[in-house]
């Protein structure tokens, strides 16, 4: 481990952070896009969610296989250039369909970020320092989400009232489109910095042969006691991660009459702060547990779902705005806590030549279940089980309790398999 390793980690994490900015900047542009293209809420919803997620997950497995066979640095450089240019291209879209196409290209390109980044980092750091490096890398979603809100708000405020800019031969560009173009250009900065990063040699071991497609999946099937339980356990935790932020604002509005501004300043700040606190405390907890347990990363992961279960139960009983915000903040802490050590556990248990496809499988399963199923469960529970569509808070808490309990049980069961797989990959 050298200074170059830390430089590479910083650059790759910066790329991941800006990929999140690139992904979430659209959330601030809903009203300008609706006015520009005469789009409906359903069309905008498709643009924000499925258009990105479907192309993202469709390329997940191929992106993972590529990360196991080709230069991770080269893949990141090419993909980062593509998603930046696609965002810039969105600034010149003249129709909804053209904007939709650029959004799908962003999803295709960003599919390479997670598996290539995780695989690269796993070969830059030894097993002692890998959990800390992984935790640093997984700060990117919190940093990116915050930057998207801050950077996007500042840029949109500065450009929204400007007269259209004529750029021959591309035509006129409105203020909100300038915001999109500037963000795309800013995304290129860390991507181009990848030219300073060297591709590390892949770690070798007896298990580290060159796997074909069939051999790769055969390996994971043989190790189902870890991989299956781990993937679906983390999918349960991810479901809570995608469900609570989606419905918490609606709950706070309906239950306590909070304004959107108040929710942003109070709940939004709590999400950012508690998420980052979880990212800091998880590797520290792992360091403490590592003195007693060889499977410390997996034991650290268990803390998160346990915290969610406790505070989701308290949310059911909360009667004031303050207690509800405290419970929501701690639920945020709980679903954020496992992320870094889950990533480290997967890398430690998997041979180098399979880390890209393992990361891709992890993301596809976790993403499809967490993002595809999670947000729809709250209205289902409130109307079908509680028979009251207004009981969003209770429904949200019930979903969080149920799936965090499932996650806790599955992840606990995965620990024995983790020890076996770590031995196989050593």
Verbal overview:
By secondary structure, this protein is mainly alpha-helical. It folds into two domains: 1-194, MFS general substrate transporter like domains (Growth Hormone, Chain: A); 213-426, MFS general substrate transporter like domains (Growth Hormone, Chain: A). The protein contains 19 helices and two strands. The protein has helices spanning 3-24, 30-37, 41-48, 50-58, 60-69, 72-90, 96-110, 113-124, 130-137, 140-159, 175-193, 213-222, 224-256, 260-290, 296-317, 321-336, 338-349, 355-385, 392-425; strands at 165-167, 171-173. A two-stranded antiparallel sheet has the order 1-2. Strand 1 (165-167) and strand 2 form a beta hairpin. Helix 13 (224-256) crosses helix 18 (355-385). The mean pLDDT is 84.
SS-based class: mainly alpha
Q: Gyration radius, to the nearest Å?
A: 22 Å
Regions with pLDDT < 50 over 5+ consecutive residues?
A: none
Listing every helix as H and every strand as E from the N terminus to the C terminus, the arrangement reads HHHHHHHHHHEEHHHHHHHHH
Main sheet specs: 2 strands, antiparallel
User: Helicity level, as a percent range?
Assistant: over 70%
Distance between the termini: 18 Å
The chain-level mean pLDDT equals 84
Q: CATH homologous superfamily of the largest domain? A: MFS general substrate transporter like domains
- Report the CATH architecture of the largest domain: Up-down Bundle
Shape: globular
Residue fraction in strands:
under 5%
Strands in their spatial order, largest beta sheet: 1-2
The DSSP helix count reads 19
Number of domains: 2
Highest CATH level, the class of the largest domain: Mainly Alpha
Task: Find the count of extended strands (DSSP E, 2+ residues).
Answer: 2
């Amino acid at each position: 481990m050298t200074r170059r390793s830390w430089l590479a980690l910083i650059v790759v994490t910066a790329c991941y952070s800006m990929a999140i900015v690139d992904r979430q900047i659209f959330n601030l542009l809903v009203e300008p896009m609706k006015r520009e293209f005469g789009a409906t809420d359903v069309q905008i919803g498709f643009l924000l969610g499925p258009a990105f997620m479907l192309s993202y997950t469709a390329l997940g497995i191929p992106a993972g296989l590529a990360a196991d066979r080709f230069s991770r640095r080269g893949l990141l450089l090419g993909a980062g250039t593509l998603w930046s240019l696609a965002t810039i291209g969105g600034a010149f879209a003249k129709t909804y369909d053209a904007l939709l196409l650029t959004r799908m290209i962003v999803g295709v390109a960003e599919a390479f970020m997670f598996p290539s980044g995780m695989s690269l980092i796993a070969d830059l750091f030894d097993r002692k320092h890998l959990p800390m490096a992984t935790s640093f890398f997984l700060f990117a979603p919190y940093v990116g989400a915050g930057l998207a809100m801050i950077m996007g708000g500042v840029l949109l405020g500065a450009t929204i009232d400007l007269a259209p800019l004529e750029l021959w031969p591309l035509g006129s560009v409105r203020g909100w489109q300038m915001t999109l173009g500037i963000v795309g250009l800013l995304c290129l900065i860390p991507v181009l910095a990848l030219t300073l990063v060297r591709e590390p040699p892949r770690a070798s071991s007896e298990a580290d042969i060159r796997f074909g497609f069939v051999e790769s999946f055969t390996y994971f099937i043989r190790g189902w006691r870890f991989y299956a339980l781990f993937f679906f356990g983390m999918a349960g935790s991810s479901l809570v991660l995608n469900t609570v932020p989606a419905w918490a604002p609606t709950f706070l509005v309906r239950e306590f009459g909070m304004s959107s501004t108040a929710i942003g300043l109070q709940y939004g700040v709590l999400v950012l702060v508690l998420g980052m606190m979880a990212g800091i405390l998880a590797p520290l907890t792992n360091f403490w547990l590592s003195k007693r347990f060889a499977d410390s990363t997996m034991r650290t992961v268990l803390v998160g779902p346990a915290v969610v279960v406790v505070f989701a139960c308290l949310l059911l009983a909360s009667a004031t705005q303050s207690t509800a915000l405290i419970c929501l903040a701690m639920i945020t802490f709980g679903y954020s806590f496992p992320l870094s050590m889950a990533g480290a556990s997967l890398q430690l248990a998997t041979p180098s030549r399979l880390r890209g496809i393992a990361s891709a499988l992890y993301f596809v399963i976790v993403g499809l279940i967490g993002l595809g199923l999670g947000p729809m469960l709250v209205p289902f529970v409130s109307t079908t089980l509680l028979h009251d569509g207004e009981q969003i808070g209770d429904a949200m808490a019930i979903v969080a309790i149920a799936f965090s309990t499932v996650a806790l049980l599955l992840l606990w069961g995965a620990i024995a398999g983790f020890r076996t797989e770590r031995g196989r990959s050593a």
